[in-house]
TrEMBL record:
Membrane topology: Multi-pass membrane protein
Name used for this protein in its record: MFS transporter
Main location per the UniProt record: membrane
Keyword annotations from UniProtKB, A to Z: Membrane, Transmembrane, Transmembrane helix
Pfam families in the record: MFS_1
Length: 412
């Protein structure tokens, strides 16, 4: 695989930077509530399982809506879809901050998830279509935005959460409003009319063996991802670390680790090894990290180390999986992104409440063991589907793929 130099990645049109900036804020929403989970549970007399539903309602609606985002955006265009998504996030994030019950926040997080779905899958297709430097440069830029957002989210959540658990919600609404303005000003409307895709396109896309195997693997991988992200704050709380600032700093470290490996380490590995080989190597390491977290759950220092190491591994896997999906088929990238993201987020939706229920029913370590097993299922799927994934291991993009890429600026 040929990769561009980092300098080329930075030479992008202003439209790409506007979408990337808004993407950073959108991804902040994933980790933003992490440091305030114990505070919300205490303030609203909610159980851990009820509190984990803040992730589930958000990710479930995000996942389901993802299947339809390419249909919507192909009819109204990328810019309108991005703006509707951002507007929904502003409204529902603010509403969550004003809510007086955990049930209310769960409901508003679902609306937030709908906005997130419209924004995220369209943002990926827009960046890949409009960025200079080819698919890999665009995906690295997108993953950099993801990593930065996931890193800043817990830190901002911790800082604002130390004032009140409502603070992170109001903070997100404000930043998303800034992102909305940036898209309005900097993303010019593309004169080319988008080609409408069929409502069934993402579902039919999953029937393609390559995309089907990758989406299924991502579902199980995401269970491990969200066990680490959503359950660990409660495990840390049991060890006496429950304040928003400390939790925010720990997960800020996790996010920084994720950002570093997604932008720098993943391209280094895929320039030397086939993408599927990278998945075969790194996924078992993530399973071992989750296993270690379960075995060492009584040690605060060990658990923090497992969180940071997990971030390093997740950054590599996020970038490589996204590259695989974008290159696995000849489908429009907006369709591939919708199908893959829909399945992936459903895996994330299952993990948080399942983790807290396992912790209550079996032991505090059990969620980490279950996450490790889930990640091993993911690597098994990648290995079983290897013959269908030969295209993702191709040494470089073909001229036809590059030509197709240039036509996709408004396909999202």
């Amino acid at each position: 695989m040929s990769h561009e130099k980092p300098a080329n990645i930075l030479k992008q049109p202003t439209a790409v930077w506007a979408v990337a900036f808004a993407s950073v804020i959108a991804f902040m929403g994933i980790g933003l509530v992490d440091p305030i989970l114990p505070a919300i549970a205490a303030s609203l007399q909610a159980t851990p399982t009820e509190t984990e539903m803040l992730f589930t309602s958000y990710l479930l609606i995000t996942g389901l809506a993802m299947f339809f985002t390419s249909w919507i955006s192909s009819r109204i265009g990328a810019k309108k879809t991005l703006l509707i998504g951002l507007a929904l996030i502003v409204v529902f994030a603010a509403a969550a901050g004003l809510s007086g019950s955990v049930e209310g926040i769960i409901g508003f997080r679902a609306g937030w998830g709908l906005g997130n779905a419209l924004f995220i899958s369209t943002a990926l297709a827009t960046i890949v279509g409009a960025a200079s430097g080819g698919t890999s440069a665009a995906i690295i830029l997108y993953e950099a935005a993801l990593g930065l957002g996931i890193a800043i989210g817990p830190l901002l959540g911790g800082l604002l959460g130390s004032w009140s658990w409502r603070g992170p919600f109001f903070g997100t609404a404000t930043l998303m409003a800034v992102g909305f303005i940036a898209i309005v000003v900097l993303l010019k409307k593309n004169p080319e009319k988008p080609t409408p895709t069929k409502l069934s396109a993402p579902f039919r896309a999953l029937a393609r063996p390559a995309l089907g195997f990758l989406a299924a693997a991502a579902l199980f991988y995401n269970i491990g991802f969200f066990v680490l992200l959503a359950y660990t704050p409660f495990a840390l709380n049991d060890l006496g670390v429950g304040d928003a600032i400390t939790l925010g700093l720990i997960f800020f470290g996790w996010g920084v680790a994720l950002a570093i490996t997604s932008v720098w380490v993943a391209p280094l590995l895929t320039s030397r090894l086939p993408r599927t080989r990278v998945l075969w190597i790194i996924m078992p390491l993530l399973a071992l990290d989750l296993l270690a977290a379960g075995l060492l759950i009584a040690s605060l220092a060990a658990l923090i180390v497992c969180v940071i190491v997990g971030g390093l591994l997740l950054g590599i896997l996020n970038t490589v999986l996204t590259e695989c999906v974008m290159e696995a088929t000849d489908l429009p990238r907006s369709v591939a992104s919708s199908a893959y993201s829909g399945v992936r987020f459903l895996g994330g939706a299952v993990a948080p409440p399942a983790a807290s229920l396992l912790a209550e029913a079996v032991s505090p370590s059990m969620p980490f063991y279950a996450g490790a097993i889930s990640v091993l299922v993911a690597v098994a799927l990648v290995i079983i589907g290897h013959k269908h994934l030969r295209r993702v291991d191709a040494p470089q993009e073909t001229a036809e793929q590059e030509a197709e890429l240039l036509t996709l600026a408004d396909a999202g």
